[in-house]
Structures are given as C-alpha cells and as structure tokens.
Amino acid sequence: MKRIGMLTSGGDCQALNPAMRGVAKALLNAKEDVEIYGFLDGYQGLIYSKFRLLNYTDFTGILTKGGTFLGSSRTPFKTIREPGPDGVDKVAAMKQTYYKLQLDCLVILGGNGTHKTANLLREEGLNVITLPKTIDNDLWGTDMTFGFQSAVDVATDAIDCIHTTAASHGRVFIVEVMGHKVGWLTLNAGMAGGADIILIPEIPYDIDKIAKKIKQRHARGGRFTILAVAEGAISKEDAALSKKEYKKKLAKREYPSVSYEIADKLAKKCGYDVRVTVPGHTQRGGTPCPYDRVFASRLGSEAGELILKGEYGFMVGYKNREIVKVPLEEVAGKLKMVPPDASIIKEAKLLGISFGD
Ligand code: F6P
Questions:
Q1: Is 168 exposed, middle or buried (0-12, 13-18, 19+ CB in 10 A)?
Q2: CA-to-CA distance for 189 and 143, rounded, in angstroms?
C-alpha cells in the first residue's frame, strides 16, 4: 500500500487537472494499492490539515478542465520559517500532517516559489516529487512548463483581436502580456501575433528607439503598430539602477503598469493615439490547449511511475525532447530567463521585429 498526498500551489494555470489525472491514472492502474489524499488550496491544506481522500472518479472528466480542482493559493517562501498570524509553525505543521497520514510521498505541482518550499520539505526529510507548472515557463531544469502553451494561445488571440481594430483605426496598440520577471510568454505570443515591437525584461528598452521604429513604420505606409510588452519590461535607465533603487521607484510609479507608462511617453514624444490592452488573468484561464493536455499527462504519468519505483526528490521535467527527472536541489531558487543571444531573438530581429534595444 502506498499513500500519496497531492497539492497545487501558487498561481494556477490551464493544465493542472490533466497533470494530476496523469499521476493518478498511473498510480491507480498499477498493481499496488494506492491511496491519494488531495490537500486543498496548496500548502495551506498541508499546514492546516485540510484534505480529502480522492478516488478514481475525482480524476475522470478533468482532462479538458482549466484551473485546479484542489484549489490553489500562494504561501510565500520568504516567510515560510516565520510563524503565521495564528502563531503556527508552518514547516512543523506540514511535517506533522505528512506523518499523521503516514504518507509515502507528496506530489507538488507548482512554479518557482512552490519549488523552493518543495525542496525545503525534501531537506526536512519528506519524500517529494514535483511537476513544473506555470504560464511563465521560467522554471530552471525544464525546457517547458505546462500551462505555457495554453497561455501563448490566449495572449496570441488577444493580439490577433487587437490587430484588426488597430488596422481599422490606424492606432498604436500595446498588449501587455504576463510572465512575471521573464519574457518567454511575450516573446512567443508576440511573434505568433505578428507584433512589430516586443519588449521583454531580459532586453531593456530605449523609448526613443521604440518611437523611431513606429515612425519608420508609419513613413513606410504602415497605418498601425502593435507592441507586445511583458509586464516585467524595463527601460535601460531603470535596468541601470540597483534592485533596491528600482523597487523604490516602482513603488512610486504613477501608472497602473509599465505599458501605461510607455503609452504615455510615446504619445507625448510622437503624438500618437496609443491604447493599452491588458488580457491579465485570462492568460491563465480557460481550457488547456491540446499540447498542454498531452504534455501534462506525460509528465504526470512519469511522476506516477517514479513514485511506484520509490524514486523521490525530483521534478519531472522536459529536456531536449525527453521527459527527465531533475534533482529538486538543482531546480529550487533559479530562474530560467530568455537568453538575449538566443537564436529566436536573432530570428525575430531578422523578421524586422524591434526589441527597443
Ligand atoms: O506566475 C504566473 C503569473 O500569472 C505571472 O505571470 C504573474 O505575474 C503572476 O502570476 C500574477 O499573480 P497573481 O495571480 O497572484 O496576481
């Protein structure tokens, strides 16, 4: 008999349910008896012992469902060692729940913050297997995270919709794309949506270069310009600041986000009518795309197999077109950013896309 705990933590994404279904199918189809406990709302469920014993029917009919049927929440790693408002010792409480249920392993689905805590639990002696979820695709140790391709679809759709209205009115449009501190989502959706300018955190922009590019397009007869701007895009001046100085400046920013600041500056510099569209959390919502359904199912089933073999302490990831197991200590605390010298950046530039650099 194996007893497994499962939880989804951090911001949700589209293929969490297919991934959990993959793990459960691999386990429940095995010869060994398996009990699966689902913790509700991420690490909160583990801390406060909020769980439910899951059965086969919990995992049927969820392949196409976005979100997570277990619920999710953010439990910041920064304060994981500090007592909660109710004085609870979070790490001790999580261990207590694990031992009380006599679990053999925890399956944890999450992104960067989630992996730091997962690795801490491993260091504390718990058996842990993780799965890489995030629309940001910024997890170290895997070429791809599930949720990413679905989010690319949503963000691309937003840019496609903006294209037609921008063309009708001859406007400059900014579509602000999620991605936290990295530009994978903006880069891919921007290229797929035919954006003329793509701004990502890894390549700081110069507002004058952006203005020049728009003027050039318009001089060549272009009636409109589309900018795909990452929510974490940063100007060259701001990139030169220390982290502390930049944080201070951000706290005082009088715009709701970077796109509004860029729009205002461009309007003042060039007199353009610049509009901003922010698809926001729609990028994390809705149905997982077919790629993500397959990908998350593959990762989940491989996680199930590792558990059956008793191999713990890994994230199941994807490297060079192969599913691989990556030691958790190699994953936790690192960010996978877009390398500015990546060939996709060169190719985008060959297509005439400006990165404002
Ligand atoms: O990590 C996923 C993500 O959607 C990021 O792209 C974004 O910056 C963040 O989560 C938003 O977080 P929240 O949903 O907590 O506002």
A1: exposed
A2: 17
Q: Which tokens hold the place of 339?
A: 């390398």
* 273 pLDDT higher than 90: no
In this structure, the number of other CB atoms found within 10 A of the CB of residue 327 comes to 13
Whole-structure pTM value = 0.97
Question: Which among 299, 324, 305 has a CA at the least distance from the CA of 26?
Answer: 305
CA–centroid distance, 113 to ligand 1, in Å, is 12
Assess whether 136 carries a catalytic annotation. Answer: yes
Q: Of the residues 284, 335, 337, which should be mutated to test ligand 1's pocket, given the most ligand atoms within 8 Å of the CB?
A: 284
Of all protein residues, whose CA lies closest to atom 6 belonging to ligand 1? Answer: 179
| Selection from 312, 336, 334, 314 nearest residue 323 by Cα | 314
Query: Of the listed 136, 153, 196, 292, which one is catalytic?
Result: 136
Structural tokens at position 342: 């990546």
- pLDDT of 69-124, one tens digit each? 999 999 999 999 999 889 999 999 999 999 999 999 999 999 999 999 999 999 99
* pLDDT tens-digit series, residues 159-191: 999 999 999 999 999 999 999 999 999 999 999
* Whole-angstrom distance, CA of residue 308 vs CA of residue 199: 45
- Is pLDDT above 90 for 331? yes
Please check the confidence at residue 271 and state whether its pLDDT lies above 90.
no
Sign, Cα dihedral of 334, 299, 120, 72: positive
